[in-house]
Write a structure and sequence with these properties.
Layout (H helix, E strand, L loop, with lengths): L2 E7 L3 E8 L4 E9 L3 H11 L2 E7 L4 H10 L5 E4 L4 H12 L21 H13 L11 E4 L1
Parallel strand pairs: 1-4, 3-6, 4-5
Antiparallel strand pairs: 1-2, 2-3
Amino acid sequence: MSIYISIDPGNQKCGVLLADMKTGNVIEAGISSLKNFSDLVSLWNKNYVISKIIIGDGTNCKYIENQLQQINIFNYYFVDERGSTLRARFRYWEIWPPNYFLRLLPKEILFPPENLDAVVALILLEDFLKYNFFWPKKVNIKIWL
């Protein structure tokens, strides 16, 4: 049992991530609307044996919990998400290093071109497991709205 789902809840959308601790890889990741995320979690739960679901304890975490309970999923844990968005900016540049000229600039002033919700979900999972995952190039950040 090494497959995990991580969710970074927000106001209207959430970052979602599916990762395998056995291989150390992110399998799938993206951004989902709050109204559709439970369908995605149900699909992943049907296709994989999910070990745990990690949820950030900030905005709309109770809504996420309620939606998971409605689809009979109870193996979730809340994690502290303070500072995770800022840390995701740095983690983004670790996963996808900037081009040659941007590498010369301090990371503090670089803003990633992508939405960071999926990377925040990765940070939450890595904090929970105390383990850094590898994000293969073939895993693109998807949008499920």
